[in-house]
Amino acid sequence: MIQSVNPEPGAVALYEQKNKELAEKVEKDIQSFDAIYDVAVIKGKEETLVAYKVKHLKRFGMKKIEKDINKLLEDHYPNEDFVVSSDYKIFIETIELLERMKDPSFSEKKAEQQLQRVISLKKEMT
Amino acid sequence: MGKKKNLTPVQQQYQQLEQKHEIKRPVWKNCLNAFWVGGLICAVGQAITYFYIYFFDFTEQTAGNPTVATMIFISMLLTGFGVYDHIGQFGGAGSAVPVTGFGNSVIAAAIEHRTEGFVLGVGGNMFKLAGSVILFGVFAAFIVALIKTLWTMMGVL
Amino acid sequence: MLTGKQTWQFSNSPVIESWGTSGGPFEAEGKLAADFDVLHDDLWMGQDSYEKAHRVLLEEAIHSALQKGEFQKEEIQFMLAGDLINQITPTSFAARTMAIPYFGLFGACSTSMEGLALASFIINYQGAKKVVTGASSHNAATEKQFRYPTEYGGQKPPTAQWTVTGAGAVVLTDNQDKQGKIVTTSATIGKVVDLGISDPFNMGGAMAPAAADTIISHLQDLHRHPSYYDLIVTGDLGRIGQATTYELLQQAGLEITREQFQDCGLLIYNEDQPVQSGGSGAGCSASVVYGHLLNHMKKGVYRKILVVATGALLSPLSFQQKETIPCIAHAVAIERN
């Protein structure tokens, strides 16, 4: 639950090669962070969802890590829209979505819908 | 023990004598028990949080509320069945500080005063232990929020 | 007859004709379970409040005392009793049931001996022929008033004591046939002593000087040596209070042995019961003395005992207002002819 590292290939919702490459690049960028041990990325129509797990003892600096990630993404991909979350729930939902997307019968539309649902979960505060 | 100011010499002398026979609180043992009892309660809480994250649409952010509710519910059952006071005697601060201790103080008072009726008994006495926790908790939160607001306005944060 | 400063001697030696006790579930697991006449396995005792259960305790103790002596309650002239609850309502309500002319007493945990001393005095001077006296306490009702709710998980320090759920009552008469009977011979009324202890979780420590003061006054007034008594038993000092009192008595130069000096609060429970320093409460001395000790005297184990019931005269309000705890102790000498 906490230890198992899942460097899932940065799969993409829309099956275009360009998007996939972008997602993989983003994933590499985030993985370069010392404090982060697990990343999952999904590129959607508009937003790109980035879910990551922070090493337990580095969790005190979560706010700063999030800031740094946002800044890095902003600098490297000024035209992209990112949704960044360290929330465990978002992470498992992302992994699940990635798994389902491997199935060719899982339509793009459904994937996008699912992605939006995860993003709305993230935005929910209480 | 710190307030020895108004004691006559006779009283001071007696208290010295009495101190000799007084059984001291086993502070280290209490700390140790509090540590692991408190830790255990929090581990249970964490497990419940993960339960809500895995099986329901709660995020780490939002799972807090149902977790607290569940913990209080468990502490209510333990209080009602007369188990929590024994945990309290053993675990001390470890069982008083987590939210279960708060639940216990409310529910214990409610059970105790059931015999005086619902309005004057349960209603009037339910918060006789937890009341000051609520009052000073809310007040402290207000002060902290005030300080944070001022800092933000001054641009420190 | 007043002897010395504060001691009565009862030349007509009022007879303790019969006695009765009742206890709760915790006492049933204690060392003296066999000496209780009535034992309940539930703190509620079939009532819908702890205060009512408290009343039942005293009623049962009085009933069994009357029964054992084959008395009708109409024969009894006066009833002297008390407890720890606000305005001693459990006792007064029991007196309502009994319909015996009634004195309500409050001496905190010393009520038992306060009652016995006064009852003996009344009998001794022909104020009555038969008097019933007793005291009671109920753990949950007392905790509710003085401490926290029963189920609250607060940690009690090792100095704390456990309020006894129990009651004891005796019938005193002016029976002229004193052969082989248990009688009261003297009583010493204590003064309030306060040596500045304010921790309500350390009542034993607060009450110790009052107990020592009364014992010393008693022996001085009567010019007696401690060895006159087979047993000097204190009411509810607990471990700490008892050890402290013992040292105070030693300091005062009294030759008293450890075996001779006992405490009801330590007698009543088993070692493994979680009562911290021992038992306490008005019912503690009443149920131990009016049960266990009188039974032993009847069997001849003891011939002369001095019972010193100690009381902490605090209220929940007074300790919250940071007042120290004033304490009192009354002593009654009980002998078997």
TrEMBL record, chain B:
InterPro entries: Spore_V_AC (IPR014203), SpoVA (IPR005562). Keywords: Membrane, Transmembrane, Transmembrane helix. Pfam families: SpoVAC_SpoVAEB. It comes from the Bacteria. The chain crosses the membrane at residues 34-55, 67-84, 129-151. This is Stage V sporulation protein AC. It comes from Mesobacillus subterraneus.
UniProtKB/TrEMBL annotation, chain C:
GO terms for molecular function: acyltransferase activity. Pfam families: SpoVAD. InterPro entries: SpoVAD, SpoVAD_sf, Thiolase-like. This is SpoVAD.
